[in-house]
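Narrative summary of target 7.
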Amino acid sequence: MKKTIIGLLCALVTPLAFAQTSTTTTEETTTTNKPVTETTTSTTYTAGTVTTYEPGKTVVVKSEEGPVSFALGTAARIVTTAGKVVTAPLRTGQKVRVYYTGPSETRTVERVVVED
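Modeled conformation, tokenized:
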């Protein structure tokens, strides 16, 4: 009887001795997405003749809509239709195309093309 009890105990304890334990790790990741902002700018031009020009400050062009004033920044370029930089100041009566971005209140001049 002792042998039977010892055999039963060994049979019950053996699976516990050889049992494998497993570990499960759970990782939680939180991502915050920032909203994407797209800015679209379009370049527009006004064609006409120069009525007033102050180098580095303003140019007023008489177009079909009437006189239009533009503020010239340091990035504004004055070029010919061939793309060559004009070093002489604009003269009253010269035909030009003023390329700008932004609404009429905050027009930013990109370039002024002097037409032949």
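The chain has a mean pLDDT of 79.
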